[in-house]
Write a structure and sequence with these properties.
The chain is an alpha+beta fold and about 300 residues long. It has 10 helices and 11 strands. Strands 1, 2, 3, 6, 7, 8 and 9 form a 7-stranded mixed sheet that branches. The protein has a two-stranded antiparallel ribbon with strand order 4-5. A hairpin with a 5-residue loop joins strand 10 and strand 11. Mean pLDDT is about 85; it is low at about 5-25.
Length: about 300
């Protein structure tokens, strides 16, 4: 009986700690705030939501490479959901390193391609919808990069180590990316901008959305073909390129290699020409595919 009581007390304390951890997160307001609390008119049913989620999974968005590009995956989902007339908005979570000055704390998730490794994020984002069933409203997150099924937003937050000291907010889905500006009290002001015109950082003119989606696909493709089942020395040179979205982008688009890779670009081209050619061919194919898809869905929206 005493053992049973101890187990019950432990379970209660554990549940209480989990609830307090979620509540300890910091919600912050922005100029682009989305009013989730009063969003009953923008709610959908479970049946509509399941249909929308299945459509998202079949759309071909590369969810299995999570090193970066979440803003592009989320924006592609927004365009698709919008074309289906599914009301949606966006959740953003920021590590303290993004929200606070002189802070280096990040979010951490397991690498789906290599469970022994951890991916570090300064921020993450995904689409959200409000579901109404029996007069109850719940905010669900669509994020196949973290979960095979939609999750209530509080459960989604729990998937990231460091969530309890992070900052999150809800904004409209048509805002693509953000930039930070130092302000008082050791904080950064976070402003969001849309994927149109000459946006901050030339994201629209530079086709950042299409590039990110193509790079995400290439990263997962290269891992499956050259890393997963290969035991040759080639892995030592290729793995660092794939393990970082910045490294992959520099290699594919800039013909540059990070300093930590113990091989020169010329050696890579000479010794592993199949890898180089395959990487660039697959990227070009995916880039043009997403250019056509995004262009078509943007025209639908207009």
């Amino acid at each position: 009986m005493k053992n049973l009581q101890k187990k019950c007390i432990f379970i209660i304390l554990f549940i209480t700690a989990c609830i307090n951890n979620v509540k300890s997160q910091n919600y912050f307001y922005t100029e682009n705030q989305y009013d989730v609390a009063n969003n009953e008119k923008g709610s959908i049913t479970n049946v509509q939501f399941e249909e929308a989620f299945n459509t998202v999974l079949k759309f071909g968005i590369p969810f299995k490479y999570s090193q970066g590009g979440c803003e592009s995956r989320a924006y592609a989902m927004y365009l698709l959901l919008d074309s289906m007339h599914i009301p949606n908005f966006r959740i953003w979570i920021f590590a303290p390193s993004k929200y606070l000055q002189n802070n280096y704390d990040l979010l951490h998730v397991k690498d789906r391609n290599d469970p022994t490794k951890t991916i570090n994020w300064g921020y993450h984002t995904a689409p959200a919808v409000v579901i109404k069933e029996k007069d109850k409203l719940d905010t669900f997150i669509l994020d196949p990069s973290l979960s095979k099924k939609p999750l209530i937003y509080k459960d989604w937050l729990l998937l990231m180590d460091g969530y309890n000291i992070a900052y999150y907010t809800f904004i409209s889905s048509d805002f693509f990316m953000f930039y930070t500006t130092p302000i008082s009290d050791n904080k950064n002001k976070i402003d969001f901008f849309k994927y149109e015109g000459i946006a901050k950082g030339l994201n629209y003119g530079d086709m950042k959305l299409e590039k990110n989606l193509a790079l995400d696909y290439v990263g997962r493709y290269l891992y499956g073909k050259y890393i997963k089942n290969d035991e040759s020395k080639k892995i030592d040179y290729i793995k660092p390129i794939i393990s970082s979205i910045a490294n992959l982008e520099n290699f594919i688009l800039g013909n540059k290699l990070p300093d930590e890779i113990d091989i020169s670009l010329r050696q890579l081209y000479n010794e592993f020409p199949d890898f180089v050619k395959d990487s660039k061919n697959v990227y070009n194919r995916e880039f043009y595919k997403w250019y056509r898809k995004i262009n078509a869905y943007q025209k639908k929206g207009n």
